[in-house]
Known about the structure:
InterPro entries: NAD(P)-bd_dom, NAD(P)-bd_dom_sf, NAD(P)-dependent_oxidoreduct. Residues 7-110 form the NAD(P)-binding domain. This protein has a single domain (2-148), classed as Rossmann fold (3-Layer(aba) Sandwich), CATH 3.40.50.720. Helices cover 26% and strands 16% of the residues. It contains four helices and five strands. Strand 2, helix 2 and strand 3 form a beta-alpha-beta unit. The two termini are 16 Å apart. The relative contact order is 0.17.
Amino acid sequence: MKVLVIGASGFIGLPAARALSRAGHEVFGLIRSKAMANQFLADEITPIIGDAEKPEDWIQIVSTLDVIIECVGGNTNISVLGPTLLQAVSSAAKALRPIGAPKLSYIYTSGIWIHGDSRTEIVTDTTPLTNPVQLVACAPHSNSRSSMTPS
């Protein structure tokens, strides 16, 4: 598979990109600075220097991919950026992918921030989500699920 990890230098993105590379997939990692490029190359991850908030600078790669994994975190307002990224990828997939190409898969990861910033509670991937933090809460979509899937 050809995979793009958006936010590939982050807490979730870097281990995901490394694991995919070790499993034999061709992995591209979107990173903001050239500082990590050599580390990515050592991990057999092709660095793509760009900003998730400016997809026009890197979106052309969508035509060659099988999967995009969105691992954007930090101080970014995910409720705004998430739907914007999904729309940009969906539009690019429709415009750039060859007719008859398999559908592009899009995976969104919210990260551990979804549980908030508690210094007293231990959370894991199985901890029930009771009150998502606005920083990473995905905005509601008016479209149906099938219409949100990039083609």
